Amino acid sequence: MRLRASHMLTENKGFGTKFETWGTPESPANADFELPYPDFFNMSLGFRHDTPAASPYGYTIKFAPKSRPQGELINMSLINGKTKGAAWFVSHCATNSKRELYVKELKAASTVNVKESFPVDIYGGCGHLKCARGGACESMLDKE
């Protein structure tokens, strides 16, 4: 994300209720930008759930300051009857967090111990599977 219309920025006078937000859908490790106005923004919008304004991929949810999850942590009705372990949508194959190694271990464990199987289907630039938005693939994910 790059700011292209810097003349449209107003000076933040610190009125207490105005938030100038900077947001990017990328992890800082994958973001290719320099923040052009370091003293202008007073809030960040990020994909992590612990940011002041969380915006996970695909949607934004506003939480109350001290909200807590209610109910079951895992909704078993969504899991029962599934035939697959996980679907991973990924475009950055090699990461600083090494998440790809974790998935590799999950997949390896699935081939060694079929009784404790946890298959991982990889979609996108790092896998061989493709899934069009809004298509039959999405309904397959809901079912399997």
UniProtKB/TrEMBL annotation:
<dbReference type="Pfam" id="PF00852">
    <property type="entry name" value="Glyco_transf_10"/>
</dbReference>
<keyword id="KW-0472">Membrane</keyword>
<keyword id="KW-0333">Golgi apparatus</keyword>
<dbReference type="GO" id="GO:0008417">
    <property type="term" value="F:fucosyltransferase activity"/>
</dbReference>
<protein>
    <recommendedName>
        <fullName>Fucosyltransferase</fullName>
        <ecNumber>2.4.1.-</ecNumber>
    </recommendedName>
</protein>
<dbReference type="InterPro" id="IPR038577">
    <property type="entry name" value="GT10-like_C_sf"/>
</dbReference>
<keyword id="KW-0812">Transmembrane</keyword>
<dbReference type="InterPro" id="IPR055270">
    <property type="entry name" value="Glyco_tran_10_C"/>
</dbReference>
<keyword id="KW-0808">Transferase</keyword>
<keyword id="KW-0328">Glycosyltransferase</keyword>
<comment type="pathway">
    <text>Protein modification; protein glycosylation.</text>
</comment>
<feature type="domain" description="Fucosyltransferase C-terminal">
    <location>
        <begin position="80"/>
        <end position="133"/>
    </location>
</feature>
<comment type="similarity">
    <text>Belongs to the glycosyltransferase 10 family.</text>
</comment>
<dbReference type="GO" id="GO:0032580">
    <property type="term" value="C:Golgi cisterna membrane"/>
</dbReference>
<dbReference type="GO" id="GO:0000139">
    <property type="term" value="C:Golgi membrane"/>
</dbReference>
<dbReference type="InterPro" id="IPR001503">
    <property type="entry name" value="Glyco_trans_10"/>
</dbReference>
